[in-house]
């Protein structure tokens, strides 16, 4: 053991080693946590594994019944067929048309709710207009209204506006259903920002839009990423709204996938169906894989504070 210049004993590295070793010991609680995490990972990854290996097998190998076995004759032909040849009802052009329809729906249906939600959250957090709490309560209640309850009124409304069954109609519907949760996210995030920062910007002569664009928006990158992941995932995975409001020419990829699964011309091609399913889920999966750390950072930075 060594001593400092004042004569106080210092803890040596060898003395602290047993403490570190005790922390690394596998306690029953730690074993239970690892077992739960491993079980959860297997629960979600096992179906994905089955889908992937099935999509890479020829049909004669699938008919042997070994769904967990790796492919003996690796083939990417089911993926090509799923993308460009499989029948989605009367049309046999694959799911690529649905992919581009989903892109056309998802991009504006993500940008517009995030932009308006950020403005609403900023106004409700700092400017406090008259009736702000009532407005926030109404928006919050809108986040918990089931989609199915609003379908018929929206059909009548959009039909009266003359845009039912069009791209603007489905974008508007996603905007309506995305606004409440986006406002909630940004309002809670801005509530964690020090109010002195807003007051300093006001003293410097900043107005509503100047403070929002030059002070608040640059600080909002973590929550914007969280909102984008939630909105893209929700819009891309949507089925019922796309089926009802998009129209025949703008059906999203999820609707096309349902048509692929339910369309049979002779033998049911499980490998092509699995390939089409993975292609449909590829965008949300890639988004989570590449933006997962940003999602966690955004949540930690105030997404659930209020």
Counting DSSP H or I runs of 4 or more residues, the number of helices is: 14
Q: Can you summarize the main beta sheet? A: 2 strands, antiparallel
> What structural class do you assign from the helix and strand content?
mainly alpha
Uncertain residue ranges: none
pLDDT averaged over residues: 84
Specify the overall morphology.
Answer: globular
Which range does the strand content fall in? Answer: under 5%
Termini distance?
50 Å
Q: How many β-strand stretches? A: 2
> How much helical structure, as a percent, in the residues?
over 70%
Write the H/E string, N to C: EEHHHHHHHHHHHHHH
The largest sheet has its strands arranged as 1-2
- Rg computed from alpha carbons, rounded to a whole number of angstroms: 26 Å
InterPro entries: MetI-like, MetI-like_sf
Transmembrane segments: 31-52, 103-127, 134-155, 161-186, 207-230, 269-290
Membrane topology: Multi-pass membrane protein
Family: Belongs to the binding-protein-dependent transport system permease family.
Produce the secondary structure layout:
Blueprint: E1 2-3, E2 9-10, H1 13-24, H2 28-55, H3 59-62, H4 77-84, H5 96-127, H6 132-142, H7 147-161, H8 167-191, H9 195-203, H10 208-219, H11 221-237, H12 240-245, H13 253-262, H14 270-303
Antiparallel strand pairs: 1-2
Helix pairs in contact: 2-14, 4-14, 5-8, 5-10, 5-11, 5-13, 6-8, 8-11, 11-14, 13-14
What does this structure look like?
- The protein has 306 residues and is mainly α.
- It contains 14 helices and two strands, in the order ββαααααααααααααα.
- The chain has helices at residues 13-24, 28-55, 59-62, 77-84, 96-127, 132-142, 147-161, 167-191, 195-203, 208-219, 221-237, 240-245, 253-262, 270-303; strands at 2-3, 9-10.
- Strands 1-2 form a two-stranded antiparallel sheet.
- Helix 8 runs antiparallel to helix 11.
- It starts with a strand and ends with a helix.
- The model has no long low-confidence stretch (mean pLDDT 84).
């Amino acid at each position: 053991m060594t001593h400092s210049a004042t004569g106080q004993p210092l803890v040596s590295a060898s003395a602290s080693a047993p403490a570190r070793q005790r922390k690394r010991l596998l306690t029953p609680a730690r074993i239970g946590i690892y077992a739960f995490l491993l079980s959860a990972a297997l629960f979600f990854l096992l179906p994905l594994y089955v889908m992937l290996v099935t999509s890479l097998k020829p049909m004669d190998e699938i008919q042997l019944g070994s769904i967990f076995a790796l492919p003996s004759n690796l083939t990417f032909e089911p993926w090509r067929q799923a993308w460009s040849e499989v029948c989605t009802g009367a049309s046999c052009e694959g799911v690529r048309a649905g992919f581009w329809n989903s892109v056309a729906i998802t991009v504006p249906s993500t940008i517009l709710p995030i932009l308006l939600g950020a403005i609403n959250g900023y106004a409700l957090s700092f400017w406090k207009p008259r009736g702000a709490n009532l407005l926030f309560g109404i928006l919050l209640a809108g986040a918990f209204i089931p989609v199915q309850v609003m379908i018929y009124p929206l059909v009548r409304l959009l039909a009266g506006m003359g845009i039912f069954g069009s791209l603007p109609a489905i974008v508007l519907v996603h905007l309506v259903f995305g606004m409440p949760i986006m406002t909630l996210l940004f309002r809670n995030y801005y509530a964690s920002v020090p109010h002195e920062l807003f007051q300093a910007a006001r003293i410097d002569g900043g107005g509503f839009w100047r403070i929002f664009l030059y002070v608040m928006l640059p600080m909002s990158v973590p929550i914007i990423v969280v909102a984008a992941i939630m909105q893209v995932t929700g819009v891309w995975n949507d089925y019922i709204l796309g089926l009802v409001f998009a129209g025949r020419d703008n059906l999203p990829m999820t609707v096309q996938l349902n048509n692929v699964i339910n369309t049979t011309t002779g033998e049911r091609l499980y490998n092509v169906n699995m390939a089409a399913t993975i292609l449909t889920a590829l965008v949300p999966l890639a988004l989570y894989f590449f933006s997962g750390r940003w999602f966690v950072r955004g949540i930690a930075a105030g997404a659930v504070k209020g």
